[in-house]
Write a structure and sequence with these properties.
Shape of chain A: elongated
Order of helices and strands of chain A: EEEEEEEEEEEEHEEEEEEEEEEEEEE
Distance between the termini of chain B: 39 Å
Number of strands of chain A: 26
Number of domains of chain A: 2
Structural class of chain A: mainly beta
Largest sheet of chain B: 9 strands, antiparallel
Structural class of chain B: mainly beta
Oligomer: heterodimer
Chain lengths: 317, 315
């Protein structure tokens, strides 16, 4: 189960209830002709057991025609192990101890969610019930509590489509998933002892007999990467160009791409800073070089000429 | 096919495969033409550049490392880890007459911090080229091995497989090391809007100095070279608004004792901005699962060369 889950009220009419209109909608506030309106919403299939880290309720406003002023209502959970469908008024059902007053200082915008409310204590009270099981339903009851003016109301329900606009309950199960895994350290290798045979070429001015390793141009004590092929290819932007290397191992490779705006060459891989910045020369070509057992894979963000070099030496320990 | 002529060096040249040989005249290797340390003192925006001229007459291959404190980083990507700003970058390119190294300051402008770079200009080409180079062909001593079909006496420098005139990039076979990391899934949400985590592997290289190095990582069958940076957003507009995005930053640095390959994963969701820009209607059911860092098992490899980044120069 994911750490954070969204549960939709969905388009089952019996998941919504309003005092005047019955199934399919919740209406909350002070209706200009109907007066005080109370509502309820039900979320089926709520997974998880025990206390969650946080639960948020997102109520959607589909309609508030002619509304002005402010909306105030009280919110409870329905204190049931598995809230049943609203085939009749749910207002008389047992309410949770946990409750809060929803104080919406201004009218919501049609087609949007009201600012979410934290319903963690309500959800945890229900999920702590002895008969609760993961996958049960959780319901909420809303009763008008002084919405200021006649006409301060809103509604939502099954008419809310697509799913991204459906009233939902968001539950985060565990603590912040921010973490720092333990890092690792690998011991230094043991190098072979110095040889008194072979070939050494030292830097000009340094004795070949006592030059340190980094003062040598070349020595047969150490290895070089050996080039088996090199050449130029023309890539298509966003399309990976595969070059079969025929080695059956993952070899060392190099690649340099030609700028799309001038005659310069960049080493790949090359990635740009976050955002839409260009490099200082105004070129926005980026590219990757990847290798598997069969191919060298070169991908550039734009069509480009790339010069590659493949070595016989495998990158396996 | 193994030839019975030429030069070989290895633990047993009669039985070593081509891969196992330290050196063989059958294949060429990288040859370093110029290498030196240069400095860029950026302007107030963190932008600056330096040019290194050459007379190769073609764009050569190159490697560039930048120093930060006592650590060195091979350039190639923006790095929040190394530069402290994911929008900042260091760049380099070559053309037929120069290597240019550049910095851009990014959002933080990187201050006007003077930065030290170590470059390696290679004889080996970065472009298809068959013309004449401007450099003299021989010192009149030493040894050369030409590429197949090229005259060792008259061939261009870039046509030589080996030449004692140029420094060779060499390594100890034992220096190639590997380690595995396991990272769990992570993602931001309306409840946790700005998450980041990092993990690294330190490879002690035992060389006693800061070496030229390469590093790679593998999460599937494909090996990728570091540095690496991958930015992924839920909405196209996130590139600008940065409301909901993930950033995957792989950096490799070295100092005189170790090569550190570090993985930083960031996931950000700015709910207020997201609400504002999407009229509060963007919380689709899949939103919080489509843009996240999946659990990964990562194979990390490093190869330090014997070359000392703070050693002798030949600019």
């Amino acid at each position: 189960m994911a750490n954070e889950n969204m549960f939709l009220a969905g388009n089952e009419p019996d998941n919504y209830w309003s005092a005047t209109f019955g199934d399919g909608y919740y209406v909350m506030g002070n209706h200009p002709t109907l007066g005080n309106q109370d509502g309820a919403v039900r979320f089926p299939g709520v997974t998880g057991t025990g206390n969650c880290a946080e639960a948020r309720l997102y109520l959607h406003c589909d309609d508030r025609s002619g509304s002005t002023g402010s909306i105030y209502f009280n919110v409870w959970g329905i204190d049931e192990d598995n809230t049943s469908l609203f085939t009749g008024s749910p207002l008389g059902r047992a309410k949770t101890t946990a409750t809060f007053r929803w104080d919406e200082g201004s009218m919501p915008v049609e087609g949007t969610f009201l600012p979410y409310k934290n319903v963690t204590s309500i959800v945890n009270e229900i999920r702590s019930r002895g008969g609760w099981s993961s996958g049960n339903a959780i319901g909420f009851i809303f009763t008008n509590d002084g919405s200021t003016t006649s006409g301060s109301w809103f509604s939502g329900g099954t008419q809310d489509v697509p799913p991204s606009t459906i009233t939902n309950l968001m539950i985060r199960e565990s603590a912040n998933p921010n973490f720092n895994p333990t890092s690792k350290s690998v011991s230094a290798p043991t190098f072979p002892a110095a040889d008194d045979f072979g070939i050494k070429i030292s830097y000009p001015g340094y004795s070949v007999f006592d030059a340190t390793e980094d003062q040598l141009y070349r020595t047969t004590r150490k290895k070089v990467h050996k080039i088996i092929s090199e050449g130029s290819i023309n890539t298509t932007g966003g399309v990976t160009y595969n070059i079969a290397h025929g080695l059956s191992v993952i070899p060392f490779v190099q690649a340099y791409a030609k700028s799309t705006s001038n005659n310069t060459r960049f080493k790949l891989p090359r990635y740009f800073p976050v955002g839409t910045q260009l490099d200082p020369s105004g070129d926005n070509l980026q590219g990757t070089v990847e290798v598997d057992l069969t191919n060298v894979k070169i991908t550039t963000s734009l069509s480009a000429t790339v010069y590659y070099r493949i070595f016989i030496d495998e990158l396996e320990t | 096919m193994t030839e019975d002529y030429g030069i070989k060096s290895g633990s047993n040249i009669n039985t070593n495969t081509d891969v196992e040989l330290d050196l063989t005249s059958k294949y060429g290797s990288l040859k370093v033409y110029k290498w030196d340390t240069v400095t860029i003192t950026p302007d107030g925006n963190g932008d600056g550049q330096v040019d290194v001229t050459h007379d190769l007459n073609y764009a050569p291959s190159f490697l560039v490392f930048v120093k930060n404190g006592s650590s060195w980083y091979q350039i190639g990507a923006a790095s929040d880890l190394f530069l402290g700003d994911a929008s900042a970058g260091v760049f380099a390119y070559t053309d037929t007459s120069k290597l240019r190294i550049q910095t851009i300051g990014g959002y933080s402008k990187l201050a006007a911090t003077s930065r030290t770079f170590k470059y390696y200009l290679l004889v080996d080409k970065a472009q298809a080229f068959t013309g004449q180079s401007n450099i003299s062909l021989t010192d009149g001593y030493g040894f050369k091995i030409s590429q197949s079909g090229k005259n060792v006496l008259t061939g261009e420098e870039y046509e030589m497989a080996e030449s004692s005139k140029y420094k060779s990039l060499q390594y100890f076979t034992e220096s190639l090391q590997e380690e595995t990391l396991t990272l769990p899934a992570m993602w931001s949400s309306i409840a946790s809007q700005d998450l980041s985590e990092s993990q690294y592997v330190d490879f002690n290289h035992g060389l006693g100095y800061s070496p030229l190095f390469f590093s790679w990582f593998k999460t599937s069958t494909v090996l990728k070279e570091a540095p690496y940076n991958e930015y992924d957003s839920v909405l196209g507009s996130d590139l600008i608004t940065q409301e909901y995005y993930t950033d995957y930053d792989v950096s490799a640095i070295c100092d005189s004792t170790k090569i550190r390959v570090q993985f930083k994963r960031k996931s950000k969701f700015d709910a207020d901005n997201f609400d504002s820009d999407n009229n509060g209607s963007g919380y689709s059911p899949g939103l919080f699962s489509t843009n996240k860092h999946l659990a990964q098992t990562i194979t990390v490899r490093v190869l330090p060369f014997a070359e000392n980044l703070e050693g002798l120069n030949n600019g």
